[in-house]
Amino acid sequence: MVLDDLGSSLRGTLDDLRGKSRLEEDDIQEVVKQIQRSLLEADVEVDLVMELSDSIKGRALDEEPPGGTSARDHVLKIVYEELVELVGDSTELPLESQTILLAGLQGSGKTTTAAKMAWWFAKKGLRPAIIQTDTFRPGAYDQAKQMAGNAEVDFYGDPDSDDPVQIARDGLEETEQAEVHIVDTAGRHALEEELIAEIEEIDSVVDPDTRLLVLDAAIGQGAKEQAQRFEEAIGVEGVAITKLDGTAKGGGALTAVNETDSSIAFLGTGETVQDIERFEPNSFISRLLGMGDLKQLSERVERAMEETGAEDDDWDPESMLEGSFTLKDMQKQMETMNKMGPLDQVMDMIPGMGGGMMDQLPDDAMDVTQERMREFNVIMDSMTDHELEEPRSISASQVERIARGSGTNTERVNELLEQHKMMDRTLNQFQGMGDGDMQRMMKKMQD
Ligand code: GDP
Questions:
Q1: Residue 269, ligand 1, Cβ within 6 A
Q2: CA of 166 to the centre of ligand 1 (A)
Q3: 405 CB near ligand 1 (under 6 Å)
Q4: In terms of domains, do 209 and 242 share one?
Q5: Which single residue of 263, 360, 376, 418 has CA 20 to 30 Å from 250?
């Protein structure tokens, strides 16, 4: 995607700042120009680009870099924070029963996104159903049915009906057993009155908790008008951006988000049901800026260390990549990680751990919620030193004792042990890379 170019062009400019401790106005001007160019090329709307570059310029000139911070890191931090602000928070989607309505033009990727989202919710332990109301596009029914099969989720549609509103009504009834209802609607080639009237009617019958506008990342400036029309008709709480795996620019969708005062919910990155990511602003921008570097990671660690009052050598990300990873390490890191944000974001910052590599890992490997971390901590407090050092040696009777001691249950203790194994495996995978891989990674990091 063209937004990707922002990372490499910006890094080039930022590298020119290396070694400087003070920033001149000219330096900042250059960085800002680079950002403007990249964002405009990526189809982000002019007003939005100007707003962003003004705040970056203002902050870079006004704010004193904290002691010991280089000019380059200072600017990078500001750019990062402002871009995170620009893309906004992820659309709120609680993991509970709900109804989601998908709207968008034909070909934007609604049917595909419906199946992907269903797959995503199913992975989170909820029972989803797809309701296909697109009676306009030939083949929509078969495609939706097949994709629902691939995602292994409930499906309702009626190939013989030409009444989408009735299908929506029947669909909700027929899939009562499901917890998450995802209602796919018909698109048109353009914003016709008929489409708008139809979606308004479906919206009133379905009464969704969340309305998502599905936008092709390639849409460009047209996104603004589309977003406005759907916003007027039904209201838009969130946007799903599709086809980010292609050469699409991505910026139009950001404009749409801004226009509807909504947020990004999901990113589509391919044609199969698994090619979906929940939008996470921090990790999205980190990746965009190519910030998967240890420098950033250790800065976060340092900050978190200060807050937790932990010693500097308590956690050294590089040492984590050598030697064995015990439960003691995990316990020490949990407190720090708690302060740093979700594990997957932290992992994204380790070179080679981000992007494609993360995709190969099971989703759950990174799914340690803060709540769960607190529970894990209590469990680890009930373990002996030996158990913490050699978690793989823990027997079933020890698991029972630990569960009793921590006031939890054996299931939870085993979960912790599983989690540790997964993290250990992740790190091993990293260590297992050949020297060539390592060099390529380092090179990528410097690019
Ligand atoms: P709809 O008319 O809005 O329901 O759009 P579809 O779901 O049928 O998608 C239109 C085309 O885009 C299909 O060929 C999909 O396979 C493709 N598509 C959808 N999402 C993605 C994506 O994230 N990446 C890629 N590469 N193709 C996608």
A1: yes
A2: 25
A3: no
A4: yes
A5: 360
For ligand 1, whether the C-beta of 251 sits within 6 Å is no
Number of domains in the chain: 3
Name the strand (E) or helix (H) holding 99. Answer: strand 98-103
What interhelical angle do 251-259 and 71-87 show, nearest 10? 60
245 is in an annotated binding site: yes
Residue 93 domain-assigned?
no
- ipTM given for this complex: 0.99
Q: Is 105 annotated as a binding residue?
A: yes
Q: Is the CB of 142 under 6 A from ligand 1?
A: no
pTM higher than the cut 0.80: no
What CATH number is associated with residue 260?
A: 3.40.50.300
DSSP state of 5: H
Q: Which amino acid is at 237?
A: E
Ligand 1 pocket, residue 250 CB under 6 Å:
no
Mutate to test the pocket of ligand 1, among 101, 112, 146 (most ligand atoms within 8 A of CB): 112
Domain assignment of residue 70, given as a range? 3-87
Q: Measured on CA atoms in the order 106, 111, 117, 120, is the torsion positive or negative?
A: negative
Asked if 72 and 108 sit in the same domain, the reply is no
Q: Per-10-residue mean pLDDT for the chain, 447 residues long?
A: 62 73 81 84 84 91 76 80 86 95 92 96 94 90 95 96 95 96 86 85 96 89 85 93 76 81 90 89 72 48 55 47 69 65 55 43 48 82 89 92 91 89 71 47 43
Same domain, 55 and 103: no
